[in-house]
Amino acid sequence: MKGLLVTYLRPHRKALVVIAVLLLIQAITNLYLPNLNADIINYGVVTGDTAYILRVGALMLVVSALLGVASVITVYYSARTSMRFGREVRGDLFRHVEGFSLSQMHAFGVPSLITRNTNDVQQLQMLVMVGLTMMVLAPITAIGGVIMAMRENVQLSSLLIVTVPLMIAVIGIMVFKAVPLFRAMQVKIDRVNGVLRENLVGIRVIRAFVRTSHEEERFAEANADLTDTALKVTRLFALIMPTLMLIMNLTIVATIWFGGHLIADGSMPIGNLFAFQSYIMQILFSVMMAVMTMMMVPRAAASAERIQAVLQAVPDIAEPERALAAPLPRIGRIELRNVEFRYPGAEESVLHEVSFTLEPGTTTAIVGGTGSGKSTLVNLLPRLLDVTEGAVLIDGVDVRDIPLEDLWDLYGLVPQRGFLFGGTVGSNVRFGRPDATDDEVWDALTVAQAREFVDLLPEGLDAPIDQGGVNLSGGQRQRLAIARCLVREPLIYLFDDSFSALDYTTDARLRGALAEQTRDRTVVIVAQRVSTIMDADRIVVLDGGRVVGIGSHDDLIDTCEAYREIVASQVALGGAR
Question: Fewer CB within 10 Å, N or C, the chain?
Fold first, then answer.
């Protein structure tokens, strides 16, 4: 946690210096006021000198006003610094996660990454806010209080030898027991978020299978588990605060008791006892403030560990170490050379010795059974995943040697699930190219066969889209996702089973319009329907992660058993010909 705080607070050195100076002023004024109060009692009240009382009283008012101003400014700078700290940590976390590969996203888990960027950062932000005030002021006040208390009376100061170590011991026990509990709490918050996210995303599936009661029980179990851990922490702190208050009150009673005897035998003026009691209160109150801050430290430390785990994770998909000697020719020729891919932790590879070439101006379809590696192969082309062995080359250059943004700029990808962002129809299509005109957006919608339903929306391009596109049907989402890809006008089109939600008539019209739109581009289509890929220039057949056939539809019918099985499972063999 220390390294994280130092890294992100270093740019705010000036603000920290201002806060330190203001806290020093507060500490000095706090320590000075009891001394003035003792002078009023000893030299004003006892002697009846009203002028002295008024003069010193006026000085006390000025000192108190200075203390108030310093406190307000300190809180302002502390709040501003802590908010900026949180903003910068969240920003760096988000940017770092954006560079993760798909496998790293799955390894951390989406709910956990969300918790780390919200709840965990908030815990650190609160610690910084409180720490910049209490954590700095408390030790200054405590040390100064001890010096001033000894200055008033050394005998009474011996009470601190018992009180302060006792309070420190209580705090130490609390921290030792709280750290593992707070670590467990953050993990259990992840669990609650994970269950909640699954339920919100999969609500239709849950209702369709009448599993609402089961999911309620699952959430109740995760919620109860978190509650039990939180209660353990609360019980721990519920014992600590009364214990510290008991120590504080016993110290005050002992101060009055022994101080009274010192006043009775004339070895201590009464004003000095009041001052000493004020210093004792300041010392103990400083320890109490430190306790309040220390209560936040264990949870913040657990959160810092989780944040650092993300920030220290090296993205699997890294930028090339050296820039390209010459710009890419941007022809669009893709070559796969003996490509193999294995997911982290898996025993066997998903793809084995895959080799073929994708030529510009052609449409290549990839087909195969479930789990044959079709989507994995498509993810390797734009380097959303890195090959385990072999290489993927674009225009003769290994994709690992191309800057990521330059590489991704070549592609237009339509994934299996046409994900849409909250906004409008226009903003979702323009996600592919923000500067696209309305005419270009309408042209893309026309080719994607989406214009027919967008025209029916009262707001047209300004029609609202809910997050994830949940207010549209699956086919409508797919068509808008295709339009988003088309308006981008990429060099290479990747359609990952993105026609599955379309009816046969719309599918046929869309393929006809796409052929005209993508005539001179490299097109890759992953599909389950044979009718979708029958007219492709080439069809690559995958079986068990291996290429078992490459050719046209008619060629494969004659030469590839795996392809014949796929065709036979969908249409009559004679009709397929």
Answer: C
Cβ–Cβ under 8 Å, residues 383 and 407: yes
Count of other CB atoms within 10 angstroms of residue 326: 6
Average pLDDT by consecutive 10-residue portion of the chain (577 residues)?
Answer: 82 87 85 80 73 84 88 89 92 89 81 86 89 78 82 77 80 77 80 82 78 88 90 81 81 83 78 81 79 75 87 84 75 91 83 91 88 87 89 90 88 84 90 90 90 88 85 86 90 86 81 84 87 86 89 88 84 46
Model pTM?
A: 0.71
Residue-by-residue DSSP string for 436-465? --HHHHHHHHHHTT-HHHHTTSTTGGG-EE
Whole-angstrom distance, CA of residue 380 vs CA of residue 398: 12
CATH code reported for the domain at 327-410+493-577: 3.40.50.300
Q: Which CATH number fits domain 2-311: 3.10.180.10, 1.25.40.10, 1.20.1560.10, 1.20.1580.10?
A: 1.20.1560.10
Is the domain 417-489 a CATH 3.40.50.300 member?
A: yes
HEC assignment per residue over 266-310 = CCCCHHHHHHHHHHHHHHHHHHHHHHHHHHHHHHHHHHHHHHHHH
Neighbours of 304 (CB within 10 A): 22
Indicate if 417-489 has the same CATH topology as 327-410+493-577. yes
* Conformation bin of residue 109: beta by default, left when phi > 0, alpha when psi is -120 to 50: left
